[in-house]
């Protein structure tokens, strides 16, 4: 009778080494995090002790401190952190800053397909024809897609067209042509030229 073979799901030496390495890395991260927290706590305690010593030093010398030679700067912090604008610093003669407003897209009439020149046909798809073209105003090369409309359907743009517009609007990938705008045309054969 043949002996039972080794299970392919059994742990190997590589698996044990990988687990040990991951455990060490996890322990190192935990140790570093604890060290960072300890240093932060120590730094906060040191700042509190310095502030307390400075406050006690001011309380003991109400007359301005010592012999007047200015050597008592060692107890004060080297630089004071400004928490808010001081009233005298804010009034430097400048007018208050104005908010800048940038023009954003808004709802309005759609542009016409006549703003584009058709260069050549690329391919016909399930929902329409794709052509290469240029924008007349900027000379930028764009992809133009003419959606297939069913003549008997008088309800306007088909649901598949709206779905495709929404999908193209949501897509953001270097291999997918971005949707810049949706245009309309008076002539149904505007892109057939």
Automatic annotation (TrEMBL):
InterPro entries xref list: CDK, Kinase-like_dom_sf, Prot_kinase_dom
GO CC list: nucleus
Catalyzed reactions per annotation: L-seryl-[protein] + ATP = O-phospho-L-seryl-[protein] + ADP + H(+); L-threonyl-[protein] + ATP = O-phospho-L-threonyl-[protein] + ADP + H(+)
UniProt key word Zinc: no
Span of domain Protein kinase: 116-193
Superkingdom, taxonomy of origin: Eukaryota
Alphabetical UniProt keywords: ATP-binding, Kinase, Nucleotide-binding, Serine/threonine-protein kinase, Transferase
Residue segments, region Disordered: 1-97
Annotated Basic and acidic residues bias: 18-28
Low complexity bias spans: 42-56
EC number(s) per entry: 2.7.11.22
GO MF terms held by the record: ATP binding; cyclin-dependent protein serine/threonine kinase activity
Record's protein name: cyclin-dependent kinase
Lineage: Eukaryota, Fungi, Dikarya, Ascomycota, Pezizomycotina
């Amino acid at each position: 009778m043949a002996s039972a073979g080794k299970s392919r799901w059994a742990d190997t030496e590589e698996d044990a080494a990988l687990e040990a390495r991951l455990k060490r890395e996890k322990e190192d991260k935990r140790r570093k995090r604890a060290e960072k927290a300890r240093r932060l706590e120590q730094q906060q305690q040191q700042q509190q002790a310095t502030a307390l010593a400075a406050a006690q030093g001011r309380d003991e010398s109400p007359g301005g401190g010592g012999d007047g030679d200015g050597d008592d700067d060692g107890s004060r912090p080297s630089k004071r952190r400004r928490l808010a604008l001081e009233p005298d610093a804010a009034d430097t003669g400048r007018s208050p800053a104005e908010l800048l407003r940038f023009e954003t897209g808004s709802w309005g009439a759609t542009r016409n397909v006549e703003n584009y020149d058709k260069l050549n046909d690329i391919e016909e798809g399930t929902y329409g024809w794709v052509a290469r073209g240029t924008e007349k105003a900027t000379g930028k090369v764009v992809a133009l897609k003419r959606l297939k409309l069913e003549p008997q359907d008088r309800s306007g743009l088909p649901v598949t067209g709206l779905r495709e517009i929404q999908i193209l609007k949501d897509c953001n990938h270097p291999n997918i042509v971005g949707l810049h705008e949706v245009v309309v045309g008076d002539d149904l054969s505007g892109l057939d030229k």
